[in-house]
Amino acid sequence: MTFQATILTLFPEAFPGLLGHSVVGRALQNGLWALKVVNIRDYAPDKHRTVDDTPYGGGAGMVLKPEVVAAALRGTRNQELETKPYVVYLGPAGKRFTQADARRLAALQCPLVLLCGHYEGIDERVLETDVDEVLSIGDYVLSGGEVAAQVVLDATVRLLPGVLGAESSLHEESFDLIDPETKKTLVEYPHYTRPAVWEGQAVPAVLQGGNHAEIAKWRLEQARLRTAKLK
Ligand code: ADE
What pLDDT was estimated at residue 136? Predict the structure, then answer.
């Protein structure tokens, strides 16, 4: 089954953006996942194609109207998707997106819909009725959900079977490296390539020797040191 992602946005021209490049872009071209982009504005009922309105209670900014967002979500659902999709709204008030969430989304057995907000946000009622989960990519406020949607999809799609060439590169990098003793997640160890000495800095000797057990031990130590420094 091909992984199906649908983006609902006011800025459809922002896609595929970075998702059209590198491994994720190649996977898109090769049909390992499919991307559909829906312009929320196409679901505005009036001739001015109005999508937002002023907030109840006052304050700055505009709020996306619930009936427009609902029509976009439900229109996509009814016309294009056979199975009920999993709907995620990208917003700063959501649960912080992690590698575990990427794994969970990559394992979905239904289409994934990512709803991007703009202005001050989306009327809360449509989030209650039509959205399964709210995800934030970090504790800062972006001007819209598009960058966040690309982050979430990039992290998710690269975990799909066949997207990364070597299976091993999945298990040996940041957030997928597990400490064999504590079972805790470690960040990545440092990487080097030729030349052996660059601007006076030498590649650690252990990596230049061919002792794989020693190399594995050194990498684990380095990953532990880096992880400890972060916390
Ligand atoms: N939209 C605005 N800010 C965001 C954030 N931090 N994460 C996800 N979506 C957002």
Answer: 98
